[in-house]
């Protein structure tokens, strides 16, 4: 039995490589908020970076759709956490999720307050409307639907 991990976050970086004998790897770094409030002087609230690894046909299909800044929901098998040091010399640890089973794009609707202004510029606290859209299921060269 393996550990499963599900998360929701924003893509901050991705890379697609073909190695060995045509094995395709899509690495996607996703920023997942910790739920803590942004501290004074910080540009963003605290978050964890989760590294997703997507393999072969699924990687080839998804590379056509992923973009930095896009919100995603994902599920997969949790790997071993690893530590690294940022360019600023700050030690960090990140989780790895291998064999991603589910990868959905989530579009957040823009909110407006009672006066028609963008709610992100006001202090009104209302939950955003969400809609989840699965990516189109592409076909391979033989016309078979690729499993997602």
Number of domains: 1
- Beta-strand level of the residues, as a percent range? over 45%
CATH homologous superfamily designation: Nucleic acid-binding proteins
Poorly predicted residue ranges: 117-131
According to DSSP, the number of beta strands is 7
Enter the CATH topology name: OB fold (Dihydrolipoamide Acetyltransferase, E2P)
Give the oligomer, counting copies of the same chain as homo and different chains as hetero: single chain
The structural class is mainly beta
Description:
This protein is mostly beta strands and about 150 residues long. It has a single domain, classed as Nucleic acid-binding proteins (OB fold (Dihydrolipoamide Acetyltransferase, E2P)). It is about 5% helix and about 45% strand. The protein is globular and about 50 Å long. Residues about 115-130 have low confidence and may be disordered.
